[in-house]
């Protein structure tokens, strides 16, 4: 082990000691950003190589979440905007996502990790093969309860809210309510009941890598009271030290939930 590695290990231990006994987020959302720029910066042959490196890093990150007993994690793997990229890149991305969810759901060590995988997004926009891979992972992990992992694929916050409102209106109409009656009685909780993420707590902490200081539509509705942490590292290079800093930052916040 080199001197730099040793210093990082010591720093990790110190950060972990600082976190001990403090409040931990129940739900962490992550925008896995910077894979393409990582590929360029490292001189990799194609953007897909950066996406593949980012996908491999997910396993390590989930190990950290398990270590700190964080029960809910949402990872944004593919946005609706990403689907508009060149066909070859989209196909590569989808293939990497299919392999990743299969590994998380059925790969070596999957049962020991106890991940319960669910997919959220406009899944009807995805190819049949991708939908099948997501469904297979959900079915394979349905009985697990240690960590609930949401993979956001074909996800966009505006699309989610639009779909939620459409679902709500159709549901109320099916029960005989008029548009005027729906408008008169509509509450925020009613919309929340029709979101992709229904049944999960809202994220306490949202992390974005690669230095971008925006959410880009990630969990727009659910993040009203979330804490945000922005990190300069590209996702494939996001270290445990970076995660511990995000948790330390979270513990130092005074959460008032708008009050």
Radius of gyration: 19 Å
- Indicate the low-confidence ranges by residue numbers: none
Described by strand count, sense and barrel closure, the largest sheet is:
6 strands, parallel
According to CATH, the homologous superfamily is Decaprenyl diphosphate synthase-like
Q: Any overview of this molecule?
A:
The protein contains ten helices and six strands. With 259 residues, the protein is an alpha/beta fold. It has a single domain, classed as Undecaprenyl pyrophosphate synthetase (3-Layer(aba) Sandwich), CATH 3.40.1180.10. The chain has a six-stranded parallel β-sheet with strand order 3-4-2-1-5-6, sandwiched between helices. Helix 2 packs across helix 3 (47-67) and helix 4 (87-106) packs parallel to helix 6 (128-140).
Summary?
This protein is of the alpha/beta class and 259 residues long. It has helices spanning 3-19, 35-41, 47-67, 87-106, 110-113, 128-140, 157-174, 179-185, 188-192, 240-252, and strands at 27-31, 72-79, 115-120, 147-155, 205-208, 227-230.
Task: Chart the SSEs and their pairings.
Layout: H1 3-19, E1 27-31, H2 35-41, H3 47-67, E2 72-79, H4 87-106, H5 110-113, E3 115-120, H6 128-140, E4 147-155, H7 157-174, H8 179-185, H9 188-192, E5 205-208, E6 227-230, H10 240-252
Parallel strand pairs: 1-2, 1-5, 2-4, 3-4, 5-6
Helix pairs in contact: 1-10, 2-3, 3-4, 4-6
Based on the model shown, name its key terms.
single chain; 259 residues; alpha/beta; Undecaprenyl pyrophosphate synthetase; six-stranded parallel beta sheet; 10 helices; 6 strands; 48% helix
